Amino acid sequence: MARLLIDQSPSLQGTVRISGSKNSVLPILAASLLAEGKSCIEEIPKLQDVWIMQELLESLGATTHWEQNMITVRSDELTQYEAPYELVRQMRASFLVMGPLLARLGRTRIPLPGGCAIGSRPVDLHLKGFSALGAEVTQERGYVQAKADQLKGARIYLDFPSVGATENIMMAAVLAEGQTTIENAAVEPEVVDLANYLNAMGALVRGAGTDTIKITGVSTLTGTNYSVIPDRIEAGTFMVAAAMTHGDVYLENVVSSHLKPIIAKLRESNIQVIETENGLRVCSKEPIYAADIKTLPYPGFPTDMQAPLMSLMSIAQGTCVITETIFENRFMHVGELKRMGADIKIEGRSAVINGVPSLTGTQVRATDLRAGAALILCGLIAEGTTEIQDMYHIERGYEDIEMKLRNLGASIQKIEI
Ligand code: UD1
Fold this sequence. Notes:
alpha/beta, 4-stranded mixed β-sheet
């Protein structure tokens, strides 16, 4: 079991390169099940979740090869239509193989992903979409089964613009007969990245990035070379690290238009963010001011940045309210931040934060990925040493975070217990 030890660090300085997006890579790898021939996917971050997805593809009969930051996948001969419980249990995003398997094999059986630390996270919208495409969807003994001789295009309205449901339905629809329209679709950059990948394989997906996606089914897709977009949540986390330590950090490999809500909130908090052609400079020399935040679907403020921003607001001047509207139980980090001296009260779906001048290091536990990132951020400025347990949550989503922070001057080390 690994833990992270962080000592109060000097202002972070230097350049950090942002890795490929975890939330793009996972659906894109799932989509590689749709193609004949070889797919080469680049800018793959070395993350636990990506290893799980690679293992899942292999378990279904695909052959994969991961070298440096590129994975090649061949899915010519899929041998299994059922995803192993052991893998789906470890990662919810495994459910994203359902659409591709249904489209490619006409049949699939996937364990229900179950609850997770940030809420119950149902998959009803995914299933509603598959049914609309003509699949017979049944549930028994904790598994979902779907069958269809030939999926048929349909008009599907999502009650909520779910990222995963939009992606899963889009992947099923690319090989369906006729046209599918997804209304109230998610508009996240990762949805657009998946659509671009599908189109590069020969699919006909139009409108990704708007709330209406139109897909004209084709009979086959062919493997292609593709490079995934940079991870906007990793970028946001480093931006907050620069801000909290009153540092001056340059981020390479970012798409600043994807970071608009994060940039806006940092500027509102009196932090300087300078956009350049290839990156972003974050500079924080002045006092940090409190700013209210409400999480919303893109282009609103991302729920995945809620915990990291709460770390920043914990030491900002003034009081603010952070409201979580996407997940019902995403305040697990609050108890741990309070152990470090933060002054936070939860009132329903909102947290009221009174900024304090300083935090103190102690033993804390990462309850999920972004909660873990929030604790690292606090550890950077807390007096004394912060010890973060259950570091594996953090390694699910941040490539080499310890080394990247150390290169910027942070005093951080991983210890194996
Ligand atoms: C994805 C991201 C996750 C991010 C989230 C919201 C990946 C691998 N993960 O998760 O990091 O926090 O988007 O930006 O890309 N919902 C339903 N029924 C469904 C599906 C979702 O009610 O069938 C609800 C969920 O419970 C949640 C909300 O919709 O309250 C948003 O979930 P969704 O957008 O689907 O998130 P994920 O795709 O799971």
